[in-house]
Amino acid sequence: MSPEEWQAISLSLRVALVATLCSLPIGIAVAHWLARHEFRGKWLVDGLVHMPLVLPPVVTGYVLLLTFGNQGLVGQWLNEVFGWSFAFSWTGAALASAVMGFPLMVRAIRLGVEAIDPRIEQAAATLGASTARVFITITLPLALPGIAAGAILAFAKSLGEFGATITFVSSIPGQTETLPAAIYALLQVPGGDAAAMRLTLWAVALALLALAVSEWLTARMKKRMRG
Amino acid sequence: MSRRVSLGRLLSASLLVLGLGAGDSVAADEKEPIVVFAAASLRNVLDAMLSDWHDAGGERAVVSYAGTSALARQIEQGAPAHLLISADDQWMQYLVAAGAVQAGSVGVFARNRVVLIAPANSINNTAMQQAEPPPVLDADFPLAQLLGSRGRLAMANPAHVPAGRYGKAALERVGLFGAVNSALTRSANVRLALALVARGECPVGVVYASDAHVEPAVRVIGRFESNEAAPVIYPVALVKDAGRDRPGAARLLKWLLEPARGEQLQWHGLLVPGSG
Fold it and tell me: Are the C-beta atoms of B183 and B216 separated by less than 8 Å?
């Protein structure tokens, strides 16, 4: 494997890891909110969360560029106030991956929260536990299988994210050229097939590994719950 | 062979279903359209030309637009196309070598050139940037200065996109590439690079003149001397078996290469083959 290929793989892993860890707290909060609260306009929030799943990834990437680019509404502000810039950097790739994986993450965690009997939480509350304590000691541990599944699904999705990333932050080697972008680049030139095939096998292996870990975690949690 | 024919039937059947041939009472065999595979950047000009071709009594032709590399790989795998217009001479030569297109039919559909652009409303206006016509660039052009410390030059990826390759070669010829090599956006295609400059995300960019021509939010601030050794050309060729089952395809190819098409090419910001 060439240094360039390894660079693409390690960058993909870093982007996917950061994207997953940073979006996880938000994912848990949104999933919990959707699972436990009824409010006007819930369908709208639900729809917005699912947007990246159903929009063409190129559109999501373009919206990110319009919003978080250096000239974008939010991007300009972040740049002026904090000196942060997502444009053409690996943090931008992580942002794109996080947004694309978000619906999958929220769906899995929401199912996990909904599976908890609300009477357990109510019982804890009647015994004097605060809302925060109920959440941390009851809801969170019981929802762990869903949270783990959601995080790993988002991680796997991040590894494969292509359309939004390449539209938002392009594909700069070492910065934003992730595994799928490197495969795409290799397929654009005559004779790049062999290297593309090597990277494809890596992509398949990493995706399978992530899914296997997710299955294993879920099974273990279920067992522990019953036991 | 039989596989290719059945694929062709399948495609025309699906086109019929899509309504392209709906209402035709004539048997499908006689009304099968000529299928053209063309580089995505040629959409505007080719749609206009085929409308002319049809008005002049030409057979019905449908176009599948995509990136040249995708089209070339599909044709290599026996896609039922009759005509290929590529944005990249390397891919055309690859297909000729692979025997997937007819070597004797290869012609030049159009030429293009790369230009240096900036956002039309750029506040960074110097007298030089407003010169009309834009100056021919040389090594003294303050490109690094226009980029600043954090700006990037919007350009398609030179590693695999033809527009990027031509842009890199043009910048290298005038000795400006070294100054910007580490600040390229390496976009997936030239239209994304164009959008980055149009949106003001990048202070400068290198795109085709035809791209700059259709985007009012950018303006050309520098030209490159034409490179006769590696001109930007759009080669066209007949796909391997096209002549046999589709004589109309050869007629369309000949018609596309007539000098009379030059007006449409220029209208869309392209150059006539053989000009500089």
Answer: no
Q: Kindly report the pTM of this predicted structure.
A: 0.77
**pLDDT, mean of residues B38-56:** 92
Q: How far is CA A213 from the centre of its chain?
A: 16
Secondary structure letter of residue B103 according to DSSP: G
Facing residue for A172 by CB, picked from B67, B91, B186? B186
A/B interface, count of CB pairs below 8 Å: 53
| Strand order across the beta sheet in which B114-119 lies | B153-155, B204-208, B114-119, B218-223
Contacts 24+ apart (CB under 8 A), A56-59: A56/A163, A57/A100, A57/A161, A57/A162, A57/A163, A57/A164, A57/A167, A58/A163, A58/A164, A58/A167
Asked whether the beta carbons of residue A190 and residue B161 sit closer than 8 angstroms, the reply is no
CA–CA distance, B81 with B181 (Å, rounded to integer) = 38
ipTM surpassing 0.90:
no
Q: How far is CA A83 from CA A77, B39, B147, in A?
A: 9, 40, 18
pLDDT in tens, A141-190: 999 889 998 999 999 999 989 999 988 988 888 888 999 999 988 888 88
Which H or E element spans position B118?
A: strand B114-119
- Which alpha helices (DSSP H) does chain B contain, by range? 2-17, 28-31, 43-55, 68-76, 89-97, 143-147, 162-173, 177-180, 190-198, 209-214, 242-245, 247-256, 262-267
Which amino acid, one-letter code, is at B221? I
Chain A interface test: which of B88, B89, B121, B186 (most A C-beta within 10 Å): B186
> Within an 8 Å CB–CB cutoff, is residue B157 touching chain A?
yes
Query: Considering chain B, what is the average pLDDT of its residues?
Result: 84
- Measure the CA–CA gap between B125 and B142, rounded to whole angstroms: 13
Among chain A residues, the shortest Cα distance to B92 is held by A190
Cα separation, A126 vs A121, in Å, equals: 9
Q: Terminus-to-terminus CA distance in chain A, angstroms?
A: 45
| pLDDT at position B275 | 60
pLDDT tens digit sequence for A80-117: 898 888 888 899 999 999 999 999 999 999 999 999 99
Whether the CB of A190 is below 8 Å from some CB of chain B: the reply is yes
- Cα–Cα distance for residue pair A88/A102, rounded to 1 Å: 21
Tell me if A180 sits within 8 A of A61, measured CB to CB. no
Contact A85 B159 (CB under 8 A): no
